[in-house]
Amino acid sequence: MAKKKEHNGPVTHPVSLITLVNPSSPISEQYRTIRTNIQFASSADNPIKTMVITSSGPGEGKSTTSANLAVVFAKAGQRVLLVDADMRKPTVYKTFNLNNSRGLSTVLSTATSVLEAAQRTVIDNLTILTSGPKPPNPSELLGSMRMGQVIEEAKNMYDIVIFDMPPVVTVTDAQIMASKTDGTLLVIRENVSRKESLVKAKELLNMVQARILGAIYNGAEHSNDQGYYYYGN
Ligand SMILES: Nc1ncnc2c1ncn2[C@@H]1O[C@H](COP(=O)(O)OP(=O)(O)OP(=O)(O)O)[C@@H](O)[C@H]1O
Ligand SMILES: [Mg+2]
């Protein structure tokens, strides 16, 4: 008799994440500070178990932030599920060297469970649900009833579920997920994020009553001192 499989493996080591490569660097420390702030914002009445990471526009550091935050939560002993919910421009499978033949799109469009499609990583406590094959209708899948079940399943199995999203101003995906999750973090990148776009992002998130946990300032790209600062509210 085959034993019930826990998660898929094997896995190779991701190399590019600062929180893994250089955990004692100031940037890694910033990620831990963000983690602490989120933990403090979470309470029994208003727990933060599921969160969305988005930004106003493209290329502002959403995926970088999602992956590093997932790592620091896992290192703190929390069971973490990182979900690549950017089914339009997925990158999480590349960052962690995982197979993307099935993932979130599979779970949303078939009877496959999160447990079946998620993959373990070499990092203790960190499990990843990659995007899966590109679907024709990402917004409809994220807005479906099935997505609600997926969130429930994930919440039952993990302490923290992080959704890496597309930009909120460009497509509606992040807005949809912000309305279904406990909190939203907005990444702002120096010299890239535009003010009007940020105002629009805030408007769109407020429209769906998203709980905005704070903004993460992804600083200067020209220096080694790439900074991450967190502004809670
Ligand atoms: N502060 C920074 N300094 C230098 N490079 C950065 C910084 N933040 C992110 N990058 C790089 O910029 C690129 C885009 O980052 P990332 O993929 O995290 O952004 P994103 O917001 O997820 O983009 P997309 O909108 O395409 O999903 C990556 O190559 C990443 O390594
Ligand atoms: Mg991304």
From TrEMBL:
Pathway: Capsule biogenesis; capsule polysaccharide biosynthesis. Belongs to the CpsD/CapB family. GO terms for molecular function: ATP binding; identical protein binding; non-membrane spanning protein tyrosine kinase activity. It is an enzyme of class 2 (transferase). Residues 50-188 form the AAA domain. Keywords: ATP-binding, Capsule biogenesis/degradation, Exopolysaccharide synthesis, Kinase, Nucleotide-binding, Transferase, Tyrosine-protein kinase. Involved in the regulation of capsular polysaccharide biosynthesis. Autophosphorylation of CpsD attenuates its activity and reduces the level of encapsulation. May be part of a complex that directs the coordinated polymerization and export to the cell surface of the capsular polysaccharide. InterPro entries: AAA_dom, Bact_polysacc_biosynth/exp, P-loop_NTPase, Wzc-like_C. It holds the Pfam family AAA_31. It catalyses: L-tyrosyl-[protein] + ATP = O-phospho-L-tyrosyl-[protein] + ADP + H(+). One of its GO terms (cellular component) is plasma membrane. One of its GO terms (biological process) is capsule polysaccharide biosynthetic process. The keyword Kinase applies. Its EC number is 2.7.10.2. This is Tyrosine-protein kinase CpsD. The keyword RNA-binding does not apply.
